[in-house]
């Protein structure tokens, strides 16, 4: 009897620990749970670490749009596809800071700057570092997504005050080659390691609805949850099918499968902020509410996500009000 009690206590303790050894079988078992059990587990885990009403609000600005040499099949900014997105130069620091100030005024706590590069040139990095310093001086957290980085570039961004670096794994290792051919999964992992080693917090997630199998979604979550440290921020995007991209004609994902992916991310990475990212513009209020019930606790706020539409801020505020959600304070 005593033995049984000790064992169940041990089991309970280990189920509460943040783990980095998730197997695919374990993650598959989460996806296979009956929906009420999946939601219950996600919420149980979530409430140990977060206020269930609090939602972190980020704003994302494209500081250098289009003309990207990479061939990510989902992306309208790739120079490989005719999507009507024109290539632009890097924005000026003053223009970026004006947008950051406006985002702060609208309630954002983090300002993310995205550039359509394979990797930044050193002269580009000089300018981005100056933007990072300026955004930080406004009292906002800073995030950047600039493509692949060397260890030295990651260090420079850290010295400039960068808080987060976004670099998504996008999908499972097995499906990655069907989506991107101009760089490898290992390239992604290498940049993530540079970012982590530089002491910058990691924002890393993926996209669902790209024609991947359920097993690929499992593989993506298992890979993220097995990184040496869980990303502090895990964006889960629903593909926005943009005309002209190779994925434009694909089938939309079942929203329930999307919600399951969010819940699995929450359970496998209990202390990470899970962001309900791209795709909200086409999502019903009810689907978004299910995503929050599955314990997504961050959104991008503002009318545009890089080049694709995002819900108007007043629509988001109304939805948060209807659901009793409040902005997360760090
Ligand atoms: S996702 Fe990024 S790296 Fe890929 S094509 Fe678009 S801008 Fe370039």
Overview of this protein structure:
42% of the residues lie in helices and 15% in strands. The protein is built from twelve helices and twelve strands. The chain has helices at residues 2-16, 24-31, 35-49, 93-105, 122-137, 151-160, 176-179, 185-197, 214-225, 255-268, 285-293, 313-323; strands spanning 54-64, 110-115, 141-145, 164-166, 201-203, 206-208, 233-238, 273-276, 298-300, 304-305, 308-309, 326-327. The protein is globular, with a radius of gyration of 19 Å. Residues 1-14 have low confidence and may be disordered. Residues 68, 70, 72, 75, 77-78, 116, 147 line the site of iron/sulfur cluster.
Brief account:
With 330 residues, the protein is of the alpha/beta class. 42% of the residues lie in helices and 15% in strands. It has helices at residues 2-16, 24-31, 35-49, 93-105, 122-137, 151-160, 176-179, 185-197, 214-225, 255-268, 285-293, 313-323, and strands at 54-64, 110-115, 141-145, 164-166, 201-203, 206-208, 233-238, 273-276, 298-300, 304-305, 308-309, 326-327.
List descriptors.
10-stranded parallel β-sheet; 330 residues; alpha/beta; disordered N terminus; globular; 42% helix
Gyration radius from CA atoms, angstroms: 19 Å
Low-confidence stretches: 1-14
Q: Tell me which ligands are bound.
A: iron/sulfur cluster
Q: Please bin the fraction of helical residues.
A: 40-55%
Largest sheet: 10 strands, parallel
Q: Into which percentage range does the β-strand content fall? A: 15-25%
Shape field: globular
Average pLDDT score: 90
**Backbone structural class:** alpha/beta
What is the ordering of alpha helices and beta strands?
HHHEHEHEHEHHEEHEHEHEEEHE
Count helical runs. Answer: 12
How far the N terminus sits from the C terminus, by CA atoms, comes to 45 Å
Number of strands: 12
């Amino acid at each position: 009897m005593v033995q049984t009690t000790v064992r169940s206590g041990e089991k309970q303790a280990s189920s509460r620990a943040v783990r980095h050894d998730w197997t695919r079988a374990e993650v598959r078992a989460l996806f296979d749970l009956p929906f009420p059990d999946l939601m219950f587990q996600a919420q149980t885990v979530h409430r140990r670490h977060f206020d269930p009403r609090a939602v972190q609000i980020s704003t994302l600005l494209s500081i250098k749009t289009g003309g990207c040499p990479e061939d990510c099949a989902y992306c309208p900014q790739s120079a490989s596809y005719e999507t009507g997105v024109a290539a632009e130069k890097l924005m000026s620091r003053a223009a970026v800071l004006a947008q950051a100030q406006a985002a702060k005024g609208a309630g954002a706590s983090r300002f993310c700057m995205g550039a359509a590069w394979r990797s930044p040139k050193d002269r580009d990095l000089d300018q981005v570092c100056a933007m990072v310093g300026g955004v930080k001086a406004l009292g906002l957290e800073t995030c950047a997504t600039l493509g692949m980085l060397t260890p030295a570039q990651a260090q420079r961004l850290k010295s400039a005050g960068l808080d987060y670096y976004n670099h998504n794994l996008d999908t499972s290792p097995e499906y990655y080659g069907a989506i991107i051919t101009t760089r490898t999964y290992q390239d992604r992992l290498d940049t993530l390691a540079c970012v982590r080693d530089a002491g910058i917090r990691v924002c890393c997630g993926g996209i669902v609805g790209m024609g991947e199998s359920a097993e690929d979604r499992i593989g993506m979550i298992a890979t993220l949850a097995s990184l040496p440290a869980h990303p502090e921020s895990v964006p889960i995007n629903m593909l926005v099918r943009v005309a002209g991209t190779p994925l434009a004609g694909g089938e939309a994902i079942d929203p329930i499968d999307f919600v399951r992916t969010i819940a699995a991310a929450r359970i496998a990475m209990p202390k990470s902020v899970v962001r309900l990212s791209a795709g909200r513009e086409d999502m019903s209020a009810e689907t978004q509410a299910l995503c929050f019930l599955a314990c997504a606790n961050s959104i991008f706020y503002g009318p545009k996500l890089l080049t694709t539409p995002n819900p108007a801020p007043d629509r988001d505020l109304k939805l948060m009000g209807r659901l009793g959600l409040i902005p997360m304070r760090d």
